[in-house]
Amino acid sequence: MRWSETYIPTLKETPAEAEIASHRLMLRAGLIRKLAAGTYSYLPLGMRSLAKVTAIIREEMEAASVREVLLPALQPAELWKRSGRWETMGPEMIRFKNRHGRDTVLGPTHEEVITDLLVGEVRSYRDLPKNLYQIQTKFRDEPRPRFGVIRSCEFLMKDAYSFDRDAEALEKRYRRMFEAYETIFKRCGLNTIPVEADTGVMGGDDSHEFMVPAGSGEDTIVQCAGCGYAASKDRAAKKLGVEIQEGVACPKCKKGMKLLPAIEVGHIFKLGTKYSAALGAAFLDEAGQSKPIIMGCYGIGVTRLLPAIIETHHDEAGILWPVSVAPYPAVIVPLKISDPAQAGLPEQVERELTEAGVECLLDDREVSAGVKMKDADLIGFPIRILLSDKTLQKNSAEVKFRGEAEATLVPLTELLQQVKKRA
Amino acid sequence: MRWSETYIPTLKETPAEAEIASHRLMLRAGLIRKLAAGTYSYLPLGMRSLAKVTAIIREEMEAASVREVLLPALQPAELWKRSGRWETMGPEMIRFKNRHGRDTVLGPTHEEVITDLLVGEVRSYRDLPKNLYQIQTKFRDEPRPRFGVIRSCEFLMKDAYSFDRDAEALEKRYRRMFEAYETIFKRCGLNTIPVEADTGVMGGDDSHEFMVPAGSGEDTIVQCAGCGYAASKDRAAKKLGVEIQEGVACPKCKKGMKLLPAIEVGHIFKLGTKYSAALGAAFLDEAGQSKPIIMGCYGIGVTRLLPAIIETHHDEAGILWPVSVAPYPAVIVPLKISDPAQAGLPEQVERELTEAGVECLLDDREVSAGVKMKDADLIGFPIRILLSDKTLQKNSAEVKFRGEAEATLVPLTELLQQVKKRA
């Protein structure tokens, strides 16, 4: 891929709107642009990283036997009235009347819709379990959208829902999803702490949040240095019955607990029968008794993963993408190649890498060496391959891994092999 | 993949809401379910075919050097006022005030947003051309949603936009997109007729629609049996200055023209400078003169492709999926296998096909042979592999291709090879 054939408007200056590192870097590296308060466009590089992240999520959901669906954003108010959330959801839920005067909701979440989807079609214990997910746009009219795509009014979410016959089956499913979440975040290069959490407006019995410790995080978690117990601040306060401060005693081992700022990237809930009972999603058990289906729901803030990764993977010069989610693992930077016989070499390297399955971007812009090097660091390609008169005199390319201090001269004959090892 | 591990609620009866074959079959085969007037949920099988179609589109867009972006659905009214479409778009555009009282549009299309995205960042003729696309949900408050996902209020669209320096470059790009469209529709198994069309509310100079001839189509095209000239009915009427009826003379060769009902699946436009001039998307040419960027836009009704395929690929028993877009190319149907030594065979065939890259569904339901065979025909898997005592006595499987009358007994040792050929 050539730089000139895509759209990467990098910025030298930090836009005034950017408050935290990820927001600043996503704008500067040309990953996103703001359309209005709380709404962002993804440009080609941002879209590529987003596609990597969603591909990882899809793989792990399929591996956990969860099947993909796609549910509408436009939802009839009637469903929300039946679940009771028409009243309990605040002004962050976008509501309007359609042209026929019907109250319509722009889905902030999909428990009602997916529960209704199974009514009358899942009838017997033999039809259970069912495990479904979607990756879809959610809408929330945030009072104070901020931090770029971390708290925005329109965002991609992966929301999965489980339908089981009893609490035991739910417990098993919940653990399987917990494991899938740990794998997903790990593959994205994220270090998450799973914490006990409140269920809030979702209802239900039990829930865990997956938190990425980061100085800029809007949430606060408490973690025990002794036994490792961790909870959201609110949950810990409720459990302990006290205001949480640094050093408060762990409810499990009584050691002192630490407060940590963090970014929430996932949240899983044991919903129980709240939605199935309200919406009539029932099944007949072996004895022919009708029972409400036991539900769980499992969310990942998909568009929030990119800023969470960047918050924990950057330096002064720019982003340090993990290879798994980099827009391109490698960038090829040709500098002042005066020998006409070598003029086609960057294109040849690009072709060879691409054919070997290494996605790479060839910086074919007519700009200075300094601009190319700075942009490569800013965007944060894991591997930078520099070709110049100097390297070509030694039949070599200069290979530098982002985040490592030293560059290495690699003979052209070994380049593909060396790069493949790390890409 | 096992049938029991996904969610395929097939229906024996035709739902009363279904007016045409594709609508009826998408409901009966468990591809979609209606949530409310004009809004549908995609179930796992529908989602798989949708994923096949979007993968084809993405491959052909990339091959045509078009790069993927993702633009917001929530759009500030201000942009639409500047383009003039705040007034010209009718009540099908969903508008509401957000919690801060700002007029907001739920995007029915994205010319304004994408044009604004380039303002101030594409500055010189050296930054052009740019070619971007997205696959994203559009919202239109249809007065009379009908035909299932053919005319719905929320649908997936692929919308691409080109930005060029002059009419000549646009013409070249337009032709390249025209070719990409022909390839995409062909790969989806669709026979399309490209027709001259009106530009309507989009504005611009020139446009073509890609139409799938189908008895249930809401649109009408005219086609000349002599020279092949084809146009939408409205366009032909304007061009000829007469009301179009069967047998009207072709404007090119004067032969009689035929009227054909058809489904519109794609529409490409030479927009010219309508949006770039209104929104200030300009570039400096070699002489340092500021000029508005010349634009084109290129739409595909992604969710409309499935019903268009089904309208043209079905029989009395159900769907006849082209392999390229089938939810699974193959279904494995085990029937009454009484020999305990053979009990694991269906699973083994499933594993071998999957490992060989043939996506297959194993019908592990405890239902009658009749139900399994009927559902296999209804869903329309291209290849049905039947395993029974009868076939196993001959160390064989019965392989039947959907739409072909005869089944063939294939030795188990040749099964993989035979299936791979057609999958």
Describe this structure in words.
- Two copies of one chain form a homodimer.
- The first copy, chain A, is of the alpha+beta class.
- Chain A folds into two domains: 3-227 and 259-315, 2-Layer Sandwich (BirA Bifunctional Protein, domain 2), CATH 3.30.930; 328-422, Rossmann fold (3-Layer(aba) Sandwich), CATH 3.40.50.800.
- Helix content of chain A is 31%, strand content 29%.
- Chain A has 13 helices and 23 strands.
- The first copy, chain A, has helices at 21-28, 44-63, 77-83, 85-88, 111-118, 167-187, 233-240, 274-279, 302-312, 345-355, 369-379, 389-393, 412-422; strands at 32-36, 39-42, 67-68, 74-76, 94-97, 103-106, 130-139, 154-164, 193-196, 206-213, 219-224, 230-232, 257-272, 282-284, 290-292, 294-301, 314-315, 318-319, 330-335, 360-362, 383-388, 396-401, 407-411.
- In chain A, the strands form six sheets. In chain A, strands 3, 7, 8, 9, 10, 11, 12, 13 and 16 form a nine-stranded mixed sheet that branches. In chain A, strands 20-19-21-22-23 form a five-stranded mixed sheet, with helices on both faces.
- In chain A, helix 2 (44-63) runs antiparallel to helix 6.
- Chain A is elongated, with a radius of gyration of 25 Å.
- The two termini of chain A are 16 Å apart.
- The model of chain A has no long low-confidence stretch (mean pLDDT 95).
- At the A-B interface, strand 1, strand 2, helix 2, strand 3 and strand 4 of A face strand 1, strand 2, helix 2, strand 3 and strand 4 of B.
